[in-house]
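Quick review question:
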């Protein structure tokens, strides 16, 4: 573990700086821990469950679980190498203590309950600690109550049962329905353990504290073993491995689904209303995460995620939804919660109305991912093959339609990226036929429609005055998602591509590598991390490795400020040097991996699976 930079915890009107949150998880739930030892976000038992702790969305009445020294202190914090076990050193005037945190699992997989463990060890001197537990109310919708049992205090929150399990040296000052207060002191070689055990609609198992303590190390071993089995040996390996571990937070092991992020309603701009619920599985995001898993050599994760995608689409029929719940069901309609929102940014949403949008790019995502999966040395079954053929036919039928685009906008237009993705879908469908993975019945049709899409794009989506492919047909606005056109292969004029990338960097990056999503959006939001890394990957594809590498270095230099533990959000405000948007954000982490892979010049045939 490298020596981390010190942080002096500070809250602004009760809110932690987003860049100071670290995540822990076990492949089912994700907790966010502030620099002052407070767990401000945790949905249990699953990522898309109601929040048990939600102070990140309401500093006044949100739930939290905080352990911090009683006096003045600063911290040094980092993950263990190749692990999602978090270590925090509390450095005070009287001593030093080390807190190790994990949501535990076993070597055989996840536990049948949630087990959030916090171990505090004395290193030097004495450090008095206080514990504050405020049970959440499912975003102000449930009243919690506690019950005395022979094994301790148990909290009931709706259908959840939760128990705080603590070492004998933890002295509880008060219990109440809404939480508890306690204190303890660390001394050299002291060992204190606190665990929060949670189950839903089931009996609550209370394992011995010694077993919980051991499972912290078991969990660490599990993370290290997963990393050891990855085949990535390219450039920026430290950042790639950390992003890979962050993506594992979003892999929902009960089903194989991949969540877009672990939070809801973290704003894209403070005080703005672009606050959405990302705790669901988007086809687009899942396909791109699978791509990064292929580059990493994470075979089991690739198979599980692709199988879940195929099964979910076949379950609901070929009419694609943009996103599904992590169990593969339709996403609920949006509703607003009575919470203040992060730093007053409202509304706070549960559910997502984008699920019913038309997004033509999903055809390219699915067909492109199928080819990538096969290129990695795997096979698809007959049912998946037929489903892919149905999607290709849908694409051939619908590519002339307007849609909401990759950015899920309210205005239906002929978005350039959507048309490019339709070209990719049919091109990959033809390839799958030629390689014997899809029935050849419609091959000639797909080939003709593919060529028509290419001609339509060149005729309608190129601006001579801007010397760039534009946001949508007939527009003079620009869109950073066209950096994904490198997936087009050799059918795009390289001069037009170079000109487009220059225009994007000038207008959407103001000359830098940090790109906004599209023209005119910078007043409402911050630079979009994935777009910035997509540009790196695109420059490599255009044989501009020096500019690509310089851009990569610039991005990493911008987004790795003091105290950041490389848990990437959706956006980064270059004006204030602060993070924005939901976290951990899958698109941000996967795009870093893909950019690093591109710079490394790696090819699939170089991998060991």
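Suggested answer, residue by residue:
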């Amino acid at each position: 573990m490298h020596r981390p930079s010190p942080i002096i915890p500070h809250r602004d009107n009760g809110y932690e700086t987003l860049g100071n949150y670290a995540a822990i998880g076990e492949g089912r739930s994700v907790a966010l821990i502030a620099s002052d030892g407070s767990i401000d976000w945790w949905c249990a038992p699953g990522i898309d469950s109601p929040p048990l702790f939600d102070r990140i969305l309401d500093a006044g009445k949100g739930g939290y679980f905080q352990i911090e020294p009683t006096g003045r202190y600063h911290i040094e914090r980092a993950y263990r190498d190749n692990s999602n076990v978090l270590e925090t050193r509390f450095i005070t005037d009287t001593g030093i203590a080390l807190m190790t945190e994990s949501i535990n699992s076993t070597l055989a997989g996840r536990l049948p309950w949630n087990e959030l463990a916090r171990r505090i060890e004395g290193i030097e001197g004495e450090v008095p600690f206080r514990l504050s537990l405020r049970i959440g109310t499912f975003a102000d919708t449930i009243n919690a109550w506690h019950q005395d049992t022979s094994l301790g205090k148990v909290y009931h929150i709706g259908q959840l049962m939760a128990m705080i399990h603590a070492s004998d040296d933890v002295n509880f000052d008060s219990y109440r329905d809404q939480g508890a207060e306690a204190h303890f002191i660390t001394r050299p070689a002291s060992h204190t353990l606190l665990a929060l055990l949670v189950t839903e609609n089931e009996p609550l198992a209370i394992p011995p504290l010694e077993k919980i303590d051991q499972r912290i190390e078991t969990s660490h071993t599990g993370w290290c073993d997963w990393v050891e089995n990855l085949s990535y040996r390219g450039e920026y390996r430290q950042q790639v491995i950390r992003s890979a571990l962050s993506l594992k937070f979003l892999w929902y092991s009960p089903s194989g689904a991949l969540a877009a992020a672990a939070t809801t309603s973290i704003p894209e701009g403070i005080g703005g209303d672009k606050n959405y619920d990302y705790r669901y599985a988007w086809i687009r995001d899942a396909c791109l995460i699978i791509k990064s898993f292929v580059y990493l050599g994470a075979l089991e994760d690739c198979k599980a995620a692709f199988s879940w995608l195929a099964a979910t689409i076949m379950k609901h029929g070929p009419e694609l939804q943009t996103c599904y719940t992590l169990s593969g069901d339709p996403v609920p309609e949006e509703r607003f919660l009575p919470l203040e929102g992060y730093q007053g940014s409202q509304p706070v949403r549960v559910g997502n109305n984008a699920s019913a949008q038309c997004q033509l790019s999903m055809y390219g995502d699915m067909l492109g991912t199928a080819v990538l999966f096969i290129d990695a040395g795997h096979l698809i079954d007959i049912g998946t093959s037929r489903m892919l053929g149905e999607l290709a036919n849908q694409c051939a039928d619908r590519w002339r339609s307007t849609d909401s685009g990759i950015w899920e906008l309210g205005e239906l237009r002929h978005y350039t990226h959507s048309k490019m993705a339709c070209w990719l879908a049919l091109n990959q469908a033809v390839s799958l036929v030629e390689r014997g993975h899809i029935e050849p019945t419609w091959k000639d049709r797909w080939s003709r429609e593919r060529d028509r899409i290419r001609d339509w794009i060149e005729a309608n989506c190129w601006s001579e005055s801007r010397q760039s492919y534009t946001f949508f047909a007939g527009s003079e606005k620009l869109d950073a998602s066209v950096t994904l056109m490198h997936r087009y292969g050799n059918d795009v004029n390289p001069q037009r591509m170079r000109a487009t990338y220059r225009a994007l960097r000038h207008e959407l990056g103001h000359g830098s590598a940090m790109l906004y999503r599209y023209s005119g959006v910078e007043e409402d939001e911050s630079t979009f991390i994935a777009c910035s890394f997509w540009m790196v990957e695109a420059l490599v594809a255009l044989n501009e490795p020096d500019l690509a590498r310089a851009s990569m270095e610039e991005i990493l230099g911008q987004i790795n400020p003091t105290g950041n533990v490389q848990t990437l959000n959706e956006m980064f405000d270059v004006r204030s040097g602060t993070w924005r948007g939901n976290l951990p954000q899958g698109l941000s982490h996967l795009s870093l991996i893909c950019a690093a892979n591109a710079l490394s010049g790696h090819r699939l045939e170089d991998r060991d699976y």
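Why it works: The chain has two domains: 6-226, 229-606. Confidence is low (pLDDT under 50) at residues 603-609.
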